[in-house]
Amino acid sequence: MGSVVSRFNRVRGKGKSEEERRLRANDRSFNLSHGYANNAIRTSKYSIFTFLPLNLFEQFRRLANAYFLFLLILQLIPQISSLSWFTTAVPLVFVLSISAVKDANDDINRHKCDRQVNNRKVDVLMDGQLKNEKWMNVQVGDIVKLENNEFVTADLLLLSSSEPLNLVYVETAELDGETNLKVKQALTATGELEDNIEALAAFNGEVRCEPPNNRLDKFKGTLTMNDDIYALDNDKMLLRGCTLRNTEWCFGLVIFGGPDTKLMQNSGKSVFKRTSIDHLMNILVLCIFGFLGFMCAIMAILNAFWEASEGSLFTVFLPREAGIDAHLSSFLTFWSYVIVLNTVVPISLYVSMEVIRLGNSFFINWDRKMYYPKNDTPAQARTTTLSEELGQIKYIFSDKTGTLTQNIMTFNKCSINGKTYGDLYDFSGQRVEITERTERVDFSWNNLADPKFSFHDHSLVEMVRSGNPENQEFFRLLSLCHTVMPEEKKEGELNYQAQSPDEGALVTAARNFGFVFRSRTPETITVIEMGKQVIYELLAVLDFNNVRKRMSVIVRGPEGKLTLYCKGADTIILERLDPSCNKLMKLTTNHLNEYAGDGLRTLALAYKDLDESYMKDWTQRHHEASIAMEEREEKLDELYEEIEKDMMLLGATAVEDKLQDGVPQTIEQLAKADIKIWVLTGDKQETAENIGYSCNMLREEMKDVFFVSANTAEGVKEELLNARRKMCPKAAEEPSVTTSRGGLFWVEKMETVQDEKVDGEYGLIINGHSLAFALEKNLRLELLRTACMCQTVICCRVTPLQKAQVVQLVKKYKQAVTLAIGDGANDVSMIKAAHIGVGISGQEGMQAVLSSDFSFAQFRYLQRLLLVHGRWSYIRMCKFLGYFFYKNFTFTLMHFWYAFFCGFSAQTVYDEWFITFYNTIYTALPVLGLSLFEQDVNDRWSLQHPQLYTPGQKNQYFNKKAFVRCVMHSCYSSLILFFIPWASMHDTVRDDGKDIADYQSFALLAQTCLLIVVFAQLFLDTYYWTAINQLFVWASIAVYFAITFTMYSSGMFLIFTSAFPFTGTARNSLNQPNVWLTIFLSSLLCVLPVVAFRFILIQLRPTINDEVRAKARKEALPAPAPRRTLKKRITRRSGYAFSHSQGYGALVMSQKFLLKGHMRRLALFDHRDSPMVQNQPQHYRTITEESESQSP
Amino acid sequence: MVKQESESTNRPDNTAFTQQRLPAWQPILSAGIVIPGFVLIGLAFIGIGVALLVTSRSIQVLELDYTGDSNGSPCSSCSQSVIANCKCSLNFTLTTLFQGPVFFYYGLSNYFQNYRRYGASKDDNQLYGDLSYFTSPSSSCSPYDYDSSKKPIVPCGSIANSMFNDTFTLTWTVNGTTNNVPLDGKGIAWWTDYNIKYRNPSVTPLKNAFNGTVKPINWAKPAYELDASDPSNNGFVNQDFLVWMRRAALPNFRKLYRRIDASGDYQKGLPAGNYTIDITYNYPVRAFNGAKKIVFSNVSWMGGSNEFLGIAYLVIGSLCVVMSVVMLIVYAKFKFPDEE
């Protein structure tokens, strides 16, 4: 009942929009008076009663359906009704009911989903006690109690929590896709309520706040409590869609419920995407309308002439109807022919397209080769209306983290004291590739080791265990210099909560090599060093930031020794070394270059011993600086700079940012298919560049890689121009923009920037700041031009909005089909902006998947999605359209030719029932068979020859030209189909001398010829004849004859006297040899020229498809691709990359942080965030290997 | 591959259908099929064409126009008068036997029986003998549904109203004696029309069924008097009526009038000699530039004479052979795909 009231109120409230929300805790009557929505949500569109009218209304809003309704009305006017009403009504009802069934099914699913969410239970404070209530009954102003790991019921104002400082931890993955925990803090005033039910029940605070909106990061309001006014901001809000973590309980006041919550406000209407075929179809349908009008006009004019010369004389036998003269007659003829020729706009076109796309979507869902067994995730086509566009992708925009990479870091190599560890060599000194099966180092001597950690070089363990001081110092540094939080739920089961996965990897490495970081307090760090517990006093954390690119800790060892440990970017550290380690620096630099060449992320490590007095002085100055009111940052930086110099180099680490399986191969495949890949990442330039190299997008063979990172518009322009001039010195200064008109009625103006040819391959890396300038109106064409000349484009440090802008830029000026792939909430905007959005599923964040059109678990499935499914879908759709137009035009044009023999009287050539059934029964299934099962070559050949993909990008299979060809072909066929029967029947009789040139026999002959020719054409168009195709075709032919003979039987006439006037036609004419000879002749005459033409075309200009098909015929299976080994790269460059932002250094040192219950739990991050947990051994497989192993 | 069958609840089924691995026949337009195919089809077509042409040539057809446009023609006076049952006659001579069975057709040209409104202008229920439609004919019959005094017309509609009403008798003059050639009018309509589609109301005498109705305006006598001598050929099941009601597909058509009764002298067909057709000229066609003709024809296994099919088969057969040669040349020159 509540929901009814609230919906009513919402409807009422719609007139005046809510300006301010006012509510009072625990006062339902006050809150109800405002008519705020309660917490029930409704995403479904229809109810049982509204389904029929609303759905019909929706459907008739589609142009095609409305057109047929109009036709139906025309047919009810007796003067112009050239066809019985059922010829349109039956197909229309058929089409409408298919759509209605689909809509109903969708809506039932939404109802189920709504019901499930609405019926979740939560504790609500009512009448002084907690009651377990359904979510949908929760009202604005209620106080609810949430427990750990529960979903947040509605948008709540946090009142109190079980944690110190009234903190709660929430995971916002469902809301924004970020998996790290966020902290929310209640007001102290409300925090005092704690879990005192009586106090909470008596709480009568009044909230005034902003009306419902969709801004996730902003909230403004006030809380009035006992005459005190408190400001409320987003930090005190728990939003629906979050999950409570690491918090025993908390209480919240419902501010926004159900549809008003930010989650629901955000989920709003997603943009309805249409494919380029859809757009083409709209244009073609308009052209067809024009064509139809043209034909009808011709008919009307010719009818006027005929009426003047013949009809008026023929009135002896056929008088005109009262009040209709020759002019009116020709006007009526126009409309009559609109009815007769309406089939040029095929009624079942749209519904068939939907069915085909749905079918192809199912094939994507069913594909086992896009199923990821590790987390049991199949690929999913979330939007079922886009499948053929997958075959036309020209640009891919990819996120990096979680999409190209697994977001897992592994400690791979290190250089200690000038010696590198981590590589394996065989006896001859050759480097051995490390695989699954390579023996792992045994860490069982260390009972605190992380069992999931794997390392292959035994010598390092031996060195550490033998007590080598440098090696020990190296790992000591790693165990001390970080901001990781440990969690030890059970003795010996350590979990690290790292802010960046790089750090986690390094600390875990130290742990396994015997330097176990065990626990920390604000002042101390406890480390188990080779089995011995050592407690270090933590004096300072010199935190990481992007300018410093390093972090340091200052600790006092058990013997009182003061040491500064520092890790950071090699370029930065090497500048700050003591001159005494020059020799070591050289060696280490070599190693760093080597690591960088392998695409690893490097850090250099250094230490410095400090003396007591200096430290004392420094601490004093540090304290002063940290409480300074002015220029605090600068002063601190200065101090840090001062102490972090003359350090001693220890070595370097190399962490691998693990790529997802098969990423380089996939990128190579897609590049071969002439798809351009742009990486848009929020990461830093170094990280992005690093990944660019490791996934083979940036290559050593590239002539140059340009960096655009200027901070002014002029600077950016200069850099872009320089890059362009270098690549293409001869190019004109102004981009060549071709303007064309397109879209419906040619009102849309389209500007296309032409592709320019460039010698050699180039790469472009552009920074977020620069991108902001480059996306401005005056520079964006320059950006596009330069970027499109490059093989690879990487945009780093971009905001979600910029991601979308880049996509839109390409969409707008390249007129190319774009695909965006990503996994996080920051990718949502580009996923929505691109023609096709792909979400990586199976990760924790769901936002990207929820707004995507397709989702799967691994980036490498993209090649299968595009090169196999996309290509097939596109081919199928194009074949379908070509064939469908052919079939309908041929069918319709016969009426046109017949008009010249029947006085332009809108007499149909066929039986009305044939017209009714032609599209819906006789030819529906064979066409579907063609367009669901067609394959030119199978999946392996498709992957083997990515070049097969390019015709789709160029829109070659179905375009306006192809359509015109199709119409010409139909003209030819219909001429043959009309005039051959005409010539052979006009003056002949049956073999018993009786009549056969009568209208009914002629109609039967024409329709039989047509049907057989249409099937013969299907035969030519189908490359892949499965049993189902065969069944559909033969069954349709059988059904045609069965229905024909039944309808024309005596029995049907006796039952329905006037409905089936063709009684006896079938048996009287289909037993005549000359009828069959005519059918045979006209069929072959339609088919043979096509065969000859295609055969000669294959000989003269074989397409890539022809070649691969011929090859596939000779060899059963494609040869497996040779396994490639990673090429060694040699260019010098820094491999520094660290996905660390301004850290938790302050928090780690904070006294407050551990104020309460510090013995109990020290979880800042939920353990699931730890990359180490996910660090399962990964298979590295090549794509071909996989396909082999999955074949039966 | 990692085997994790236990938790793979979402793993798609591994069937040939879902994995799109259905076994399939993949025909390809290869030279080995196309070129021999064209040759074979070509040869077969030539064969069929020759057979058809020979058959068609063996059929005898005799066409006599009696419209009477030109002044010299026998029926020119009748064509200009408006007198009912105007008589004229037509002579022709057969020098050899006209092989039987011989069919006697009348033909009309420039006559639009396929005009939409004309074709719709009848009432199937009425013609099926449904008495309720006798009193209220379907509106599709308009303007021939009611006469000026609002009495229903039976049979209604333009088709029935415009029924062909010329009649013919054929006489054979040999050795000075004139014989009436017997004409058989039974079974000239389709069996289904005679037995299923058209029925007289089961009222005896038939005349009573037509009480309160009027005959079609152009008709000389009402439907129940079309053949008063033979009840099984009277009313709606009159064979001439049925033949007329099966409307032609094209504006130039011929309809079966009678068969030459193969008895006596006519067992083998029409013997050589002089013949006279006496025509009762009623049907006006000159108003719309139409023409009327009489056709005598015999038939073969492939029906009436029609040279088109034979010629078409011959031409297309030859084209196929030519085409196969062209394709062979193209193939020899380009050789795609490189086979062996």
TrEMBL record, chain A:
Residues 118-184 form the P-type ATPase A domain. GO terms for cellular component: plasma membrane; trans-Golgi network. Residues 622-649 form a coiled coil. Residues 24-88 form the P-type ATPase N-terminal domain. Keywords: ATP-binding, Coiled coil, Lipid transport, Magnesium, Membrane, Metal-binding, Nucleotide-binding, Translocase, Transmembrane, Transmembrane helix, Transport. GO terms for biological process: Golgi organization; phospholipid translocation. ATP binds at D399, K400, T401, E503, F544, K567, R601, T681, G682, D683, R797, K803, N826, D827. SUPFAM superfamilies: Calcium ATPase, transduction domain A, Calcium ATPase, transmembrane domain M, HAD-like, Metal cation-transporting ATPase, ATP-binding domain N. This is Phospholipid-transporting ATPase. The active site is at D399. Gene3D superfamilies: Calcium-transporting ATPase, cytoplasmic domain N, Calcium-transporting ATPase, cytoplasmic transduction domain A, HAD superfamily/HAD-like.
Automatic annotation (TrEMBL), chain B:
InterPro entries: CDC50/LEM3_fam. Keywords: Membrane, Transmembrane, Transmembrane helix. Its main location: membrane. It is found in: Membrane. GO terms for cellular component: endoplasmic reticulum; Golgi apparatus; plasma membrane. Belongs to the CDC50/LEM3 family. GO terms for biological process: phospholipid translocation. The chain crosses the membrane at residues 28-54, 311-332. This is Cell cycle control protein. Pfam families: CDC50. The keyword Secreted does not apply. The gene is LOC102200060. Coiled coil: none annotated.
